[in-house]
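Researcher: We're teaching a course module on how sequence relates to structure. For the next exercise, students receive a sequence and then see the predicted structure as tokens, so they can try to spot secondary structure elements on their own. Here is the exercise chain.
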Amino acid sequence: ARRAIADLPPQQREVLMLVTVEGQTYEAAADTLGIPLGTVMSRLARARVSVARAVRGEARTTLAEKAARGG
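Model: And here is the predicted structure for the students to work with:
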């Protein structure tokens, strides 16, 4: 998951970190970044989808690697 977060576009990563790590509300993140609330919401949604897809992909890769090794 850390790699997936690091690979996000900077604007998405910034919003994700403010809301999920620092615990800011959407409104506070919007104020901090000087952007509209709707922009915070859309960036956060895109970031969450990207991270979820990347993590699922990593899990599939890990399972495929184990199967290839006979595990």
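Model: If you want an answer key for the exercise: The mean pLDDT is 90. Helices lie at 2-6, 10-21, 26-33, 37-68.
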